[in-house]
User: Fold this.
Amino acid sequence: MKFEPITWERLTDALAAHVDGLTPADGGPWLKVAVDGPPAARPEELAERLAEALLVRGRAVAAVGTGGFLRPASLRYEYGKEDPDAYYGGWFDTGALWREVFAPLEPGGGGRVLPDLWDPVTDRATRSPYRTLAPGGVLVLHGPFLLGHWFPFDLTVHLRLSPGALARRTEQPWTLPAFERYEAEVAPAEAADVVVRADDPRHPAWTGLP
Assistant:
């Protein structure tokens, strides 16, 4: 896999231009983009940059983080608070993402997307209002472990860290085996349309557009 040095600004502009020219694969009026990566790679920052660049291009955008779709603590911590297998397969409510985010954006859907569902601090529902994404709008979903769920993305971007960089920058080391499992089972760098190497956050590199 060959990587080309790039700045975050050029990367964002290139992604926005590419997304702006895409046609939804499912025939509906909404595009769906993934910014996948471990928390240490800060996928939310690239997602926010991309959302802003798309807004400048006149596209409606809903940026949604999987951190707002955690399952209740009683389920997340069923096997303890530092179980990497539970973190990998049981922390994020993929069923709710399908129901509240993707289903409304299917062809014939109403476009009413829930931006978040669960507050991990209070361990209660957020009760956030639904947001209607106008036809022609773009969903930008960001967070870890986004690939391998058959989510209907039109473009997938994976932020990749080397094992050493991931270990140095991960604030919760007990989660590292979960990312090793993700690499082994999903191979996100092979599955994604675009891979961004972010070992040095000041100097990213990427594989280019598909």
Remarks:
- The chain has a mean pLDDT of 97.
- The CA atoms of residues 61 and 138 lie 5 Å apart.
- Residues 43-56 form the longest helix (14 residues).
- The two ends are 13 Å apart (CA to CA).
